[in-house]
From TrEMBL:
Protein name: Similar to Saccharomyces cerevisiae YNL258C DSL1 Peripheral membrane protein needed for Golgi-to-ER retrograde traffic
InterPro entries: Dsl1_C, Dsl1_N_dom, Dsl1_N_sf, Zw10/DSL1_C_sf
GO cellular component: cytoplasm; RZZ complex
The Retrograde transport protein Dsl1 C-terminal domain, residue ranges: 591-783
């Protein structure tokens, strides 16, 4: 017991004498030392020692990473860096205890290790395995890298990169190697480098893009050097010959088969395989005469060899490129196909000549010359290739206004079974509002309620209210009332303004009645081009007389010329029609030009007729809404000027029998479809609106007189009938019957006269008697005949 006490005192004395624990306020001679303080200090020292050990682990991992990087142990580098990141997270408490400056320094340094690792990988691929410049592409499957010349294998390193950054063949941009970095700039650098590594050396964009550029370049040649595993791009000063082009295809095949890693070949062929196939096919087609000719056996064999190489490449593409070798094989063996390709070559030269015509900055093709027009077309009116006018109003009953069949017979179009073309005309600026937007209106207007005047039904026009006195009512119906003075003045003002427009129209018609007409150089240019085309085709090795493919190409050439020309002739559409008409009048074998020209003329007329229809229906709406004081602005300022400027004058300008046919069709549409047929579908016409309609018809009739049609019986007949409607609309029943008894309605059928009487007058005994007289007199006339 005593010995234990002595030992304890000795230990306490030893500790007390230790300078580490010495304190000014401690009495070393006392045995009452602060044991708790000693234990606390010991704990602090143990904690510091633990933190230092953890920090030492970080230092060891950093050293391990740097060592692996120097030895190019890249996989070990990756995992060393990954462990380093894990340790930073696991020992976060010990790390946070350190000063802020220390923490920032460590984090910055570790981020720099990420950048250094990725840069090392990228440099090995971009400067080691691959060397891609504007002039060449070189690949090496194994390289010596670094100061110690460590040997690296491309396939092994590529597999490692895919494993680390592209799990499941998909680039992972949220991997720890990116997301665990602390500073944004370094993180962006690493992300960009990984993306570039994947894009350029896994997806091979750095290889594909220059190869495609050179394939599509007209003067680029490709040479392959097996010794250096390199393809070189050479710029040829002149256009490469066919053998030189085949050498380029051969070089790409050899480079792909002998140099490109087999693991990357499917990726490469997926992008350029179809391009190579199309370019080879185009090369063979464009040079068919040289390749497939009887005296070019070597070229044909070379083409066949490249075709076989493409088949071999396709078999190694793992389904990424399905090459159709039979296409080239058939092309090299089919004689008819060979001839067709020669025709294609001639056709493309003709199209180039057409395009060259319109590329002339001086536009010499626009120069005009005067030609004389015969009174009839060369082959009669049957040559007018316009389809019969589709009436906007269908199923018109009792319609005696359809005189298209007598004006002209429709041309039987020549159908082109091998090629069709849809020609779209461009709109002129000054009438853009008319048809830039589709005009939506009901072309089969069925008795619109807005034109029904209920007041006129309740108070019939010129009808005696007392129906018991039939004789008095009949007498009243025959009375002619005097017009109001204001109405007379308004009618006079409208008529005066309308006559001024009619006078201008007559002057234009006189000016356009000449037998000569201006045409541009287009007819001569095209006739020379198609003559040359036919001549070159017929001078080929085989006789192509009656060849269906040649016929198809001739038709296609006409369609192409028409489509290109119409895009440059938008200012005066009628002038373009005159040019096209001159072509098929000089050479009536140009059936396609004839067909397209007829459609072009008709489509321009129909397009403008839509605007006319809309304006007339708007005027009818005005009559309904304000029948007592309607506005005539849309007729005087819109309808009549538009009809003259955009329809009558252009159609008159084309002259010839075609002008007469189209003008008659327009007048039929204007008089019958747009006005008469619509009015006949009203349920009733009020007294005021009968006057308004009469004035409208008078205005339109006065302003649509076309002098060049004066010799046409159909023109005179349709105008006489139209004007007659305008005359009897405002009249009383007695006056209308007087006209009937005088034979003024000889142009109208019995049903038409009865329909007008029913529309204008209420159902009274007087009207019944009038209708009965009309039917009896007409029937008696028929019986006499």
């Amino acid at each position: 017991m005593e010995s234990n006490i002595i030992e304890e005192n000795r230990i306490i004395t030893s500790i007390a004498n230790d300078p580490i624990f010495a304190k000014d306020d401690v009495d070393t001679r006392s045995s009452n030392l602060d044991v708790n303080h000693i234990l606390e200090t010991e704990s602090q020292l143990s904690s510091q020692l633990h933190d230092l050990k953890n920090l030492k682990v970080l230092a060891s991992l950093i050293k391990e990473f740097n060592t692996n990087l120097e030895l190019l142990e890249l996989e070990n580098c990756y995992y060393s860096l990954q462990n380093l990141r894990k340790k930073l997270k696991e020992n976060n408490e010990a790390f946070i205890k350190q000063s802020f400056h220390f923490q920032k320094s460590v984090v910055t340094y570790v981020d720099s290790l990420h950048v250094e690792f990725i840069n090392k990988l990228y440099d090995i691929f971009s400067q080691g395995f691959w060397n891609i410049t504007d002039d060449s592409i070189r690949f090496r499957s194994s390289i010596e890298w670094g100061d110690e010349n460590f040997l690296l294998e491309h396939d092994l390193l590529l597999d490692l990169v895919k494993q680390l950054f592209c799990p499941g063949d998909t680039l992972d941009l949220h991997s720890w190697i990116i997301d665990d970095m602390e500073f944004g700039n370094d993180r962006d650098t690493v992300r960009t480098k990984i993306e570039d590594l994947h894009k350029n050396y896994i997806l091979l964009n750095s290889l594909i893009n220059p190869i495609k550029d050179k394939i599509f370049s007209k003067n680029a040649l490709i040479k392959y050097t097996k010794k250096d595993d390199t393809i070189k791009f050479i710029v040829s000063e002149s256009k490469p010959s066919v053998p030189m082009l085949f050498d380029c295809f051969q070089a790409l095949c050899d480079f792909s088969l002998n140099t490109i890693p087999q693991s990357l070949l499917p990726i490469l062929l997926k992008s350029i395989g179809k391009v190579l196939e199309n370019e080879l096919l185009k090369c063979v087609k464009n040079n068919a005469g040289e390749i497939i000719g009887r005296d070019n056996k070597d070229l044909k064999e070379h083409a066949s060899k490249i075709n076989d190489l493409f088949s071999t490449l396709s078999s190694k593409s793992q389904g990424n490129w399905s090459y159709h070798a039979h296409t080239i094989k058939d092309l090299l063996q089919d004689r008819q196909l060979y001839i067709n390709l020669l025709v294609d070559e001639i056709y493309h030269r003709a199209v180039r000549d057409i395009r060259t015509t319109f590329e002339d900055k001086d536009e010499n093709w626009r120069k005009t010359l005067k030609i004389q027009l015969s009174l009839q077309s060369d082959n009669g009116i049957q040559e007018v290739n316009t389809t019969s006018n589709s009436s906007i109003e269908e199923n018109n009953e009792d319609n005696d206004w359809n005189w298209d069949a007598d004006a002209s017979s429709d041309h039987q179009s020549v159908h082109d079974k091998t090629a069709t073309s849809k020609i779209v005309t461009e709109d002129e600026d000054d009438i853009a509002d008319a048809w830039n937007e589709e005009i939506d209106f009901d072309m089969d207007l069925q008795s619109p309620k807005k034109f029904i005047d209920k007041s006129s039904i309740e108070t019939p026009k010129k009808q005696n209210e007392n129906e018991d006195h039939e004789d008095d009512g009949w007498d009243e119906a025959w009375d002619i009332g005097e017009e109001d003075d204001d109405l007379k003045e308004e009618h006079h003002a409208v008529g005066t303004e309308g006559k001024s427009i009619a006078t201008e129209s007559n002057n234009n018609a006189n000016r356009l009645s000449s037998d000569s007409i201006d045409v541009t150089q287009l007819p001569t240019i095209f006739l020379n081009i198609i003559k040359k085309f036919r001549s070159e085709c017929l001078n080929l090795e085989d006789d192509l007389t009656g060849n269906p493919y040649l016929t198809y190409k001739i038709s296609l050439l006409q369609t192409t010329f028409f489509a290109i020309s119409v895009a440059h002739c938008t200012e005066e559409w009628w002038s373009f029609y005159v040019d096209m008409r001159e072509i098929w009048k000089n050479d009536n074998t140009n059936y396609r030009i004839q067909e397209l020209t007829g459609r072009y003329l008709e489509s321009n007329r129909l397009l403008r007729q839509k605007r006319v229809w809309k304006l007339i229906q708007d005027q009818f709406s005005e009559f309904h809404e304000r029948e007592n004081v309607p506005s005539w602005k849309m007729t005087l300022e819109d309808l009549l000027p538009f009809a003259h400027k955009e329809i009558i004058t252009p159609l008159s300008n084309i002259k010839g029998i075609e002008a007469e046919v189209e003008l008659l069709r327009f007048l039929d549409f204007l008089y019958n479809d747009s006005i008469i047929s619509v009015i006949l579908k009203w349920e009733v016409i009020s007294e005021k609106n009968s006057e308004n309609l009469g004035r409208l018809i008078s205005l339109i009739s006065d302003n649509t007189e076309i002098e060049i049609l004066n010799n046409s019986p159909k023109y005179r007949e349709c105008r006489a009938k139209f004007e007659m409607v305008g005359r009897f609309l405002p009249l009383h029943l007695k006056e209308i019957m007087d006209m009937f008894y005088n034979g003024d309605f000889y142009l109208f059928s019995t049903e038409e006269i009865v329909q007008w009487v029913k529309l204008l007058f209420a159902d009274t005994p007087i009207r019944k008697d009038a209708i009965s007289d009309i039917c009896e007199i007409r029937q008696a006339a028929l019986d006499d005949n």
